Every structure is written in structure tokens, then in C-alpha cells.
Amino acid sequence: MKLSDWITGLNAGGSDGWGVFYKAREMKAAGEAVLELTIGEHDIRTSDAILEAMYRSALGGHTGYAMVPGVNSLRDVVAERIAERTGVPTTRNNIMITPGGQSALFSTHCAVCDTGDTALFIAPYYATYPGTLRAAGAVPVCVDARAEDAFQPRAGEIAAVAPGAKSLLINSPNNPTGVVYSRATLEGIASVCMDNDLWLISDEVYDTQVWKGEHISPRALPGMAERTLVVGSMSKSHAMTGSRVGWIAGPEEVIARLIDLATTTTYGVPGFIQDAAEFALLQGPDLEEEVAAPFRRRRDIARAILAKQNTVGLIPADGAMYLMLDIRATGKSGEEFAEGLLAEERIATMPGESFGTAAAGHLRVAMTIDDDAFADALTRLVSYAERITP
């Protein structure tokens, strides 16, 4: 029996670039000690208070079908949070609750792209982006940001491929680079979108992890609220990765159509999980800062270690739980370096090439192990780089 071209083509017939990660997991399963700096999974668990709220809700009976658009009280809390932080008037009618940010990324592209439409995205990119766009029926077209620009995208290069495209996907604070897009960058992107009648899909799941500068939601820029769909999530801000709860914020008419899509696909998010998300959001920014604090601390640890040498470069790490390291001085590709580091030092990182050719010769390091182990891993990574540099 033959599978559909659609399902077999999600990765364009190639690798998704996660070979080092899978190899590291196999080594750990075999009993080897490996320091994993690979995926964006917190080294703390979901707060006990959030889990208790989830438990109370489930015991209280919120275990049946929940409202497909999301529980109204959670939609209200999300809307209020967005309105307070961006200044853009937002109500529950602008919000749909989704099973995590990944579902939201897929749904937003289904909403704005017909089969065969061009959907633009920026590299380096979160590894699922190309497959997500293909899954929505779109043709993904990548626009490379440049290491020499600290991976801030150039509006002119987006504009060069924008004619005829339907949408543009951006992510700030950025996974994998840790870059926070500047106001000038976002204003340039907004101008391209308005000039070319593009929908802008803004992945803002790291909005609570900003170490320098400010997070600006492009939905707040003049003329952008009516053409912007924002993807949010509880995964990174509240260490609720496994709970699978996120949202889409956008124009009312788009949200109404997205509810139609959810009715025929996910059929909503469990009510007890939504109640836990509402409880978590109502704890305010103090809990968000508590979850973010280890990554802020480890970013400072990394900067201090890297400042003592000249072999490994650091792309400005202004947000998110990742560092993007420039290892081009070693003469190795990101994949070669990551394979060697794993083999010799038992340290697992993600090759830059996993996130597009724009990040070739780089590594993504997730700051997701405890401070002492992280400092040890980074110190050994630098020593390995110095050892293999010609």
C-alpha cells in the first residue's frame, strides 16, 4: 500500500536534522553519561501549585468535552494579558485556545494559505517550521538572516521574495539563536507585509524570556493588528511543555474560522488543563520570572566563560533558553563539530544546520541543565574547540 505524497513529503524527502539528538538519547539509554544541551525542555518541573489546580479541576468534574474555542474564562485571561502587555485592544473573540504552540502554527497557516501558496519564513528557524508549512498545503520559502547581522532579518531580502507570497512566519525571541528582534527590524518586516499584502504569523512563545532590550509584538505596530496572527503558549513561560496548551490571537473573523478548523481536528483542549493554565496566568509575572530566572543566570555564566577565549563566538543572546555559538574558526561544520563533541566529550548539542543553512558552522546550546553542569559542559565545549582548531 502506498502512503500519500502529502505525508511522505512533510520533510521534503530528507532528514529533519535531529541525528545528533537521537544518537545522544541512544547513548543514554545504553547507560552512558551524556550532558544534553539539545531540546528546549526545562530542568524544573511544572509548579506543584499548577499541578494541584489541574488535579482539583479534574476531580471537580472538568473532564468532559470543553468548549472548542477554549474555556471563556481562560480566553478572557489570555486576552487581558495580551492587551496589558501590548496596548492592543483584545477580547475573548480574538483568542482561540490550542493544544500547544505547534498546533497553533499549523492552524494559522491553514487559515491564511491555500494549497500551493507561498509561505515565507526566516532562517535560522525552529526545526518544525518547513514541515508545518507543507502540512498546511503551503510551499515554504526560506529567507536567510545573516550571522554578521546577529541574525536580525533584513527587510529588503524579505521584500525580494514577497511578491505573490501569502504569509510570513517570524519568531522573536528566537529559537534557535536567542536573538530578540529590534524595533527597527520589526518595523521593516511590518512595512514589507503591508506593501505586499502578507499575513504575518508571529511565534511569541518565548515572550517572557527577554534578557536585554524589549519584546515587541508586531501586532502592536501601526496597521498590523488586522493582518497579524500571534502564537502563544504556556510551555516555555510556565514550564508546562507536556500540558499542551497555547493560543492564537488575531482578528475576530479569523478566530471564527479557526474554531471551525478545531471542531474538525483537535476538538479543543481538556478543560482541567485549561483551568490549570488560567490559574498559572493569574499568578502574574512573578511566576513567569521564576521560570525564566535559570536561563537568565546561565546566559551570564556562558558569557563569562566565552569571554575568556577567542575560538567560539556567541551570537548576542538577548532572549529565550538557547545560545547560538559560532564555531566556524574550528574549520568544522556544525554537524561535524556536534558529532565530535558527543563522541569525545559526551556533550550533546544541536548542529546549526538543523535550523537551516543560514546557521551552518554554528551550534545551538539549550541552557537546560543545572548551573554547575552547564558551566562544566560549556567549558569542555570550548576546550574541545580549541583542541581541534588548526
UniProtKB/TrEMBL annotation:
Query: What are its cofactors?
Result: pyridoxal 5'-phosphate
Keywords from the named record: Aminotransferase, Pyridoxal phosphate, Transferase
Alphabetized Gene3D superfamilies for the sequence: Type I PLP-dependent aspartate aminotransferase-like (Major domain)
Q: Name one GO molecular function term.
A: transaminase activity
According to its UniProt record, which reaction does this protein catalyse?
Answer: L-aspartate + 2-oxoglutarate = oxaloacetate + L-glutamate
Give any Pfam family that matches.
Aminotran_1_2
Keyword Transferase tagged:
yes
Signal peptide (from-to): none
DNA repair listed as a keyword: no
Q: What is its EC number?
A: 2.6.1.-
- Which protein family is named in the record? Belongs to the class-I pyridoxal-phosphate-dependent aminotransferase family.
Q: Which PANTHER family match?
A: ASPARTATE AMINOTRANSFERASE
Name assigned to this protein: Aminotransferase
